[in-house]
Write a structure and sequence with these properties.
Elements: E1 7-11, H1 16-27, E2 31-36, H2 39-51, E3 55-60, H3 66-80, E4 85-88, H4 103-131, E5 134-139, H5 143-146, H6 152-172, E6 177-184, H7 190-195, H8 198-207, H9 216-227, E7 238-241
Bound molecules: nicotinamide-adenine-dinucleotide (NAD).
Nicotinamide-adenine-dinucleotide binds at residues 12, 14-18, 36-38, 62-64, 89-93, 112, 139, 141, 184, 186-187, 189-192.
């Protein structure tokens, strides 16, 4: 198993990509700490992982608030003395034309998608530095490479995630901490279905090289690679998991 006895904190673990990461990591031997503001769904994911024989603990919390992240980190340290992996995944992606955008909508997007990572990293990194070991995966979006109308607040936040990844990777390299980033393309999740019509999904697919809808597991597998020793020679990188949509 690739993550045997490693502790992983996963944000936004109650659904979609975060849930797939939690399930895959637990099946690879990790002890997964699930943080999500949807307490009921988060709990049911943790229960389902445990009933499949994995180790999981759920925490209800809003990643915009440091005080609501702290209990999950403290619990991992208390029980296992380590946070080996941090998956910064929680995010939102409502559409909004720029000219009608309220300042609160802009701020909310930056707070959930970007500043949340500041809070989670501030909580987890000191423990990684102390052990001279750590893997961080930040979830950005391929929309940063493409640009996307009606999503300027979202695309801006996801560009910030790439900047955060690159700068922090430079700063944390001397502590043997790996900080990488994934830019998912169009991933078939419940939330995506709320914003994307079937026709739009077909258009996205026609832009891909691979002619199938990508699933949360496709992203989770690359998170696994970036969280395991298989990627020990990489930091500050950004991997597109988009079925061959953009190619950099
Ligand atoms: N689905 C896609 O096509 C796609 C594409 C590119 C990037 N992404 C990114 O991947 C990540 C996950 O997307 P998804 O499609 O799985 O979304 P999702 O809505 O299925 O899951 C997101 C989870 O984050 C949680 N969450 C949201 N705000 C939170 C907060 N303030 N505090 C704690 N938890 C919070 C939600 O409750 C939810 O469980 C996001 O960062 C998203 O921007 C998704």
């Amino acid at each position: 198993m690739l993550l045997n006895e490693k502790t992983a904190l996963i944000t936004g673990a109650a659904t979609g990509i975060g849930e797939a990461v939690a399930r895959l990591f637990a099946s690879e031997g990790a002890r997964v700490f699930l943080l999500d503001r949807d307490a009921a769904r988060n709990r049911s994911v943790a229960e389902s992982i445990r009933s499949a024989g994995g180790w999981a603990q759920d925490f209800a919390g809003d990643v915009r608030r440091a005080a609501e992240i702290a209990p999950a980190v403290a619990s991992a340290i208390e029980q296992f003395g380590q946070i080996a992996i941090l998956i910064n995944n929680a995010g939102i992606y409502p559409r909004q034309p720029f000219l009608g955008m309220a300042e609160e909508q802009w701020d909310e997007m930056q707070a959930v998608n970007l500043k949340s990572m500041f809070h989670c990293l501030q909580a987890a990194l000191p423990h990684m530095v102390a052990r001279r070991s750590g893997k961080v995966v930040n979830i950005s979006s391929v929309t940063f490479h493409l640009g996307m109308g009606n999503m300027t607040h979202y695309v801006t936040s996801k560009g910030g995630v790439i900047g955060l990844t690159r700068s922090l990777a430079r700063e944390m390299g001397e502590h043997n901490i790996h900080i990488n980033c994934i830019t998912p393309g169009a991933i078939k999740t419940e939330s995506e279905a709320r914003f994307v019509t079937d026709e739009q999904a077909r258009q996205f697919m026609s832009s891909q090289s691979l002619q199938r809808r990508l699933l949360p597991l496709d992203v989770a597998r690359v998170c696994l690679f970036l969280s395991s020793e298989l990627s020990d020679g990489m930091t500050g990188q950004c991997l597109n998991v988009d079925g061959g949509w953009v190619m950099y």
